[in-house]
């Protein structure tokens, strides 16, 4: 077996998939949890990848941002703007890696 990077075929991703994936980053972790509970959404590989990835990063930011913001006088809130960038990339139909998070979710077999 070779170690190749898996990518979803572009023809398999619908505009509905892109919208749900983008929303999972904007409203993480709430929308991510809802998408993983809806049967037809969690069976779509593109949606599931982004839902799990945004769920993990949403929980991490939910914990870290208040701590960072306390010590930097609110500058930690800038990290939330990164979520909008990831939402944009998801809406463009991209499956991108968030360095530690993507390795974690793939290593755990969540996607």
In summary, what is this structure?
The protein is built from 6 helices and no strands. With 111 residues, it is mostly helical.
Descriptive account of the structure:
The chain is mainly α. The chain has one domain. The protein has 6 helices and no strands. Helix 1 (15-26) crosses helix 2 (30-37), helix 1 packs parallel to helix 4 and helix 1 (15-26) packs antiparallel against helix 5 (78-91). Residues 1-5 have low confidence and may be disordered.
Number of beta strands: 0
Residue-averaged pLDDT, rounded?
Answer: 86
Question: Termini separation (Å)?
Answer: 19 Å
**Can you tell me the number of structural domains?**
1
- Shape annotation: globular
Helix content: 55-70%
The class by helix and strand makeup works out as mainly alpha
Biggest β-sheet, characterized?
A: none
Spans of 5+ residues with little confidence (pLDDT < 50)?
1-5
Helical stretch count?
6
Percent range for β-strand residues: under 5%
**Helix and strand element order:** HHHHHH
Rg from C-alpha positions?
14 Å
Topology:
Elements: H1 15-26, H2 30-37, H3 39-42, H4 45-71, H5 78-91, H6 99-107
Can you give keywords for this protein?
111 residues, mainly alpha, 67% helix
């Amino acid at each position: 077996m070779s170690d190749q990077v898996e990518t979803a075929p572009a023809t398999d991703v619908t505009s509905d998939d892109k919208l749900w994936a983008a929303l999972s980053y904007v409203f993480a972790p709430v929308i991510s949890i809802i998408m993983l509970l809806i049967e037809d959404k969690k069976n779509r590989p593109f949606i599931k990848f982004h839902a799990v990835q945004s769920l993990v990063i949403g929980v991490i930011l939910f914990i870290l941002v208040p701590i960072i913001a306390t010590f930097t006088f609110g500058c930690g809130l800038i990290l939330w703007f990164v979520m909008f960038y990831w939402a944009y990339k998801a809406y463009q139909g991209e499956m991108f890696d968030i360095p530690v998070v993507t390795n974690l979710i793939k290593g755990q077999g969540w996607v």
